[in-house]
Amino acid sequence: MSTIVLLTLTGLGLAALYFLVASGLSLVFGLADVLNFAHGLFLSVGAYATWWAAGNLPGAGPSGFGFVLAVAFGVAAGAVVGMAVELVMIRPLYSRTIEQVLVTVGLSLAGVALLQATWGADPRPFPRPDWTQRVTSVLGAKVPNSGILLILAAALVLAALLGFLRYTRYGLVIRAGVENREMVTALGIDVRKAFTLVFAIGGAAAALAGALGGVYFGSVSPSQGGSLLIFAFIVVVIGGMGSVVGSAYAAVAVGLLQQFVNYYGTSGAGDICVVALLAIVLLLRPQGIAGRAATT
């Protein structure tokens, strides 16, 4: 029983990490129709900004309020980078899909190279509060506190995103734009401002994933964002493009499937099963779990 509880909660922790990356990615594609392969860079920026702030920003540190301040700095850095990418590199390329892919892939590679040139290619120890390195007993299972932190953070982000999308003016514009961007534009609403806001939200969520991922893994490296981005794309496709709730469902399915199959099967079998799940969803429901079928 304790093994099942441990695998479930660690799987949900991994799912929370995937969701934090995938939520912004899903919104960006759903509204702006942009496949942002540089989204993993936002995660890396958040992780390294948090790591730097914990050791250099006045008042910040690896414990207590200092750690919260360091994470806030990392999240702000991710949001700023997301806005800058949209304004400078993506905005001139709307409706030019091939150029978008080339630019975002190039930006991702350049960002990783810049991080490696600045801080080296080797993983660096991540500053973590002491309590995140301990465990909590849940129904006989000793669950890492870092995983519980991820679950709580993802739940708060999901609630905040749903509240923003449902009860604020810009949230309603984003929801309407995801459903029918042409109609929103015809009503005289400038969706370009919403594009920038969505990139900022996506950058902030990915940066938070980078900061808490550093706590979860205990280290930070330039390639960390790229490896997590692969599973984030899988989560977005399974959940349905543009659906935050769908991304949450898909993240839970992917995280639990990976944990249970890797434990009871051979190493790496969980990743194969995730790809198989993706293939099944694409064959049976191409629009994803919570996506809407395309109409003609």
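(the above was protein one; protein two follows)
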Amino acid sequence: MPVDHYENFPVASLLLPARLREPVEAIYAFARSADDIADEGDAPAIARLARLDDYRLELDAIGRGAPPRDAGLAPMFDRLARNIRTHALPLPLFRDLLDAFGQDVGKTRYADFAELADYCRRSANPVGRLLLHLYGAATADNLRLSDKICTSLQLINFWQDVAVDWAKRRIYVPQDDLARFGVGEADIDAGRCDERWRALLTFEVQRARTTMLEGAPLARRLPGRIGWELRLMVAGGLRILELIEAADYDVFRRRPTLGRSDWPRLAWRALRYEGTG
């Protein structure tokens, strides 16, 4: 399954246990289609928000045990409902995702990190929480560590996608951080990678790395193939931060991404990580 539209989702990898592929794919289909409503095409904002409201009504129907309301959405929501019932998945996590996607329709600036972190709480953290529920590992401490990993992955995606988001006239770098380092929107528009920008992105990269490392103990705690998948996710996120640094923080001219040559390195790091702590 392609993951280019919704990069927070560790979907259907070879490491995912076969019994979990069906629920993961059902969740992914919901998340990706809702994300596409918010982010793709040229429909006006009011139409996008109305369609996301249709998704909310379908979630309400699942909560009541009722059939889908919209025939066009029935296949996706019938499948989602089966998996929600089978695995006792919390409906509020799906509503959080819709709230975040709806926010993307109209909100293009974030005043401070607290505001951005609240967005991450709804856009990224529900994915990790849903996976922990599927794994039968949704303890309070595991959920806390998962939130750290997922928030970090979302932040990393923001910092590698500064130019992509600017093309949509979105800026996820907190406004108070821009002001603190003396970077303006005109600098982003010009793709100006000067000392001010490097200092700003150094700060943001380090915050994302610290957050990831705070959550990383979860990758040792989960057993088997699930733990391996999570260790690769952690290693992959940290590797993208290294690539941002290696590019001297110039994310305007080339988007840092993982390439084929990175995977042996990530596998080795995941293997070494398994034997630490």
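Reviewer note on protein two: The chain has 14 helices and no strands.
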